[in-house]
Design goal:
706 residues, eight-stranded mixed sheet, Transferase(Phosphotransferase), domain 1, Pkinase_fungal, eight-stranded antiparallel sheet, 20 helices, Fungal-type protein kinase domain-containing protein, alpha+beta
């Protein structure tokens, strides 16, 4: 891509996007490499030798052993675009009979990105292989110059480089082309992998992307190996959608406007028989916007009898227990989504890639992933779509009860990824226990007494909702366990998100993510932990909850905060004080023995609030729905940031140990007197057997004294 096609703002945006890509995929020296012959073998059938010879004899674009591409002194990158478009558009129809693929120069034309929240970001590949077919549609936000051109109907992209700028390896060009690849994954939700060609006037190579990350090939001389170059062009423009990298079990009907209007999804039922569902909507209800990782995508489908289900497609890391193991164990539990059928190990990312050719370090950066599909009985949308205060609080209460049911059954299950997207509303009119549901057990583990099997990892879960102890796990000096209390703390941050970011209920009300809540999502776990510690150890400010939430909800939030603050304080003492391993284990064990009381207390707080809340919110005149992401509060004044010593706390945490980069390997009113509910005091037995007050008991006493 020529630098001249970008203005300063676009260049800055591109640089920021590249940094996100580097954080996700890794530095260039750890990206796996392979031989291009692996991919050429997969594309060999697309062009037989006799057909290649016939094409080369016929074409005017390959003469005297050289493709007719400008070369020599004074040639600029943009001089390569049109010649390559001409070459590709002569190759494609010659070999792909009745092809619905076409190469188009797209440099300088904005191909708009799809993000959440929405942005004006765009990028411009040098060339796009435009596609028609059951997996492709016109973009929803179309470029003015060509409204039919976008990432939603791109079979692949061709990135042009001058030979002198290409270098000896493609590793340095991966961040650039991954920007395009990421948008193809987002805007083509049935993508399994994306392959992009990088081409100069003399050489070409391929960059491959899948849910395990990236892989690049060596470079071939396109003049000396014209047949192989032809096969590469044909491979990234193939009319065979499966070969192109698409999941053909999901197919759409394209309407007259060029956009998807309906579709089907084919899978297996509980007896292993093939079944085809209709898509309720042509687009997924959830789509994780990343390449490397689980790549979770959820669809709502309907069977022939009119029953609706939620289908979840994801990529499980090899060696991790399958989500279906936990879903089978969770059958019959209230507050937990129930499985109808599933397909395990549909295919693996290792089968998309060639053998490693650049050493153990790059090989260590590859984690094989297996595709799986789970069909769940259908419930409501995520909790952020609540229609009243009582609706939200009731759903969260029943999700917490569902978490208790998972933990307290015979084979205890720990969820480990509580977030606003993993809590669904129950169906309208649902009774107590069925008003909210937990989904997404692919990060779950069996709650074992062996700390090694329950170790906390700041790369597991959703950063904004991770507990402080999980965020501090990067320190590594002392093994910290991820337990049910960490998940309960995550539920607290879900409640905070609802009350701090929503100034109303209903479909027209969107989250206004306040500045200090955004800081909980910091890529650096030390910073995220510091901001949460500062938030917990200081009283709420009057403007923290939005004006929508009444005194009953604020009281619930205060009491939940008091509970979490006490647990965090005790855990920090357990893990940071100079205790022997035995003393530490004894204290943790004593804490865990109170799980029944912990759940009973929290559920009681929610039940009290629900009983006091009206079924419908009071009508507020002139209420305005918020519809933008902002760093300002809904009432118009700047929201306070939790500076409250957060910077010094972050420094104290950070200097203890190096902070790892976040990985997608596993890895958004009138006052009333505060109601203080006294907590039951308890004791912790020391190593010598003497009984002494626990830090949690001391904190409770301090709170009562205040």
């Amino acid at each position: 891509m020529a630098a001249s096609t970008w203005n300063a703002t676009q260049a800055a945006t591109l640089a920021a996007q590249k940094q996100v890509i580097v954080d996700e995929i890794g530095e260039s020296n750890v990206i796996p490499a392979t031989t291009i012959d692996y991919f050429l073998a997969k594309y060999e059938h697309l062009a037989k030798e006799d057909r290649i010879k016939k094409f080369l004899r016929k074409t005017e674009l390959y003469k005297k052993g050289v493709w007719q591409i400008p070369r020599g002194e004074g040639i600029k990158e943009e001089n390569l675009y049109v010649p390559m478009e001409t070459i590709a558009n002569e190759i494609i129809p010659f070999f792909h009979v009745s092809s619905n693929r076409k190469a188009l120069v797209s440099s300088g034309r904005p191909l708009y990105h799809k993000e959440d929240p929405a942005t004006d970001h765009s990028s411009s590949p040098d060339l796009v292989i435009q596609a028609n077919g059951p997996s492709f549609e016109f973009p929803h936000r179309a470029p003015v110059l060509d409204p039919s051109l976008g990432y939603s109907n791109a079979a692949s992209c061709l990135e042009m480089k001058l030979d002198k700028d290409l270098g000896n390896a493609l590793a340095s060009h991966v961040p650039q082309v991954e920007i395009y690849s990421r948008q193809m994954f987002i805007q083509q939700p049935n993508r399994r992998f994306v392959r992009i060609l990088v081409i100069s006037e003399n050489r070409a190579g391929l960059v491959h992307f899948d849910r395990s990350g990236a892989q690049y090939t060596d470079l071939i001389d396109i003049n000396k190996r014209p047949g192989d170059f032809i096969r590469l062009i044909l491979g990234v423009s193939s009319p065979d959608e499966h070969l192109l990298g698409l999941d053909t079990t999901i197919q759409w009907v394209i309407g007259p406007n060029g956009r998807k209007k309906s579709g089907t999804l084919t899978t297996e039922d509980a007896d292993g028989n093939e079944i085809t569902y209709d898509l309720v909507e042509p687009y997924p209800v959830f789509n994780r916007h990343s390449i490397r990782g689980r790549g979770t995508i959820c669809w709502t489908v309907r069977d022939a009898a009119g029953n609706e289900f939620l289908v979840k497609d994801s990529w499980r890391s090899e060696g991790r227990e399958s989500e279906t193991t936990f879903l089978e164990k969770a059958k019959g539990l209230q507050g937990v989504a129930q499985v109808a059928s599933f397909e395990e190990d549909r295919e693996e990312t290792a089968s998309f890639r060639g053998p490693f050719t650049n050493g153990e370090r790059a090989e260590d950066n590859f984690y094989n992933r297996w595709s799986m599909r789970v069909v769940l009985h259908c419930y409501g949308p995520p909790i952020i779509h609540f229609t009243s205060m009582k609706h939200a609080i009731s759903a969260l209460r029943d999700a917490i009860a569902g978490h208790r049911n998972l933990v307290h059954q015979k084979q205890r299950i720990l969820h480990r990824d509580i977030s606003i997207f993993n809590i669904l509303l129950g169906n309208p009119g649902a009774p107590k226990g069925l008003r909210g549901f937990l989904i997404d057990l692919d990060m779950a583990i069996l709650w074992d007494r062996d700390p090694l099997k329950m170790s906390a990892d700041c790369r597991t879960g959703t950063r904004m909702f991770q507990s402080i102890m999980v965020l501090c796990a990067f320190q590594g000096k002392i093994l910290r366990t991820h337990d049910y209390l960490d998940d309960l703390e995550a539920f607290f941050y879900v409640l905070c998100y609802l009350m701090f970011c929503f100034n109303g209920a209903g479909e027209n009300v969107k989250a206004v993510v306040s500045q200090f809540v955004q800081k909980w999502d910091d890529v650096d776990p030390a910073n995220a932990a510091a901001h949460k510690i500062a938030f917990l150890t200081h009283p709420f400010l009057p403007e923290d909850p939005t004006p929508y939430w009444n005194e009953t909800c604020i009281t619930l939030l205060e009491n939940f905060k008091s509970f979490v603050e006490g647990v965090v304080k005790e855990k920090r003492i357990i893990y940071e004080a100079k205790l022997s391993e035995t003393e530490r284990d004894d204290r943790i064990d004593m804490l865990h023995k109170q799980s029944d009381q912990h759940y009973k207390r929290l559920l009681g707080l929610f039940d009290t609030a629900i009983q006091a809340l009206p079924d419908q919110d009071p009508v507020v005149k002139d209420a305005k729905a918020t519809d933008v992401t902002s760093t300002d509060s809904p009432n118009g004044s700047p929201l306070p940031t939790p500076s409250r010593s957060a910077k010094s706390t972050a420094k104290a945490i950070a200097k203890r140990a190096p902070v790892p980069k976040r990985s997608s390997q596993e890895i958004e009113e009138p006052e009333e007197p505060q109601v203080k509910h006294p907590r039951t005091t308890r004791s912790v037995r020391s190593k010598r057997g003497a009984v002494k007050p626990s830090p949690l008991s001391q904190l409770q006493s301090e709170s009562a004294a205040q």
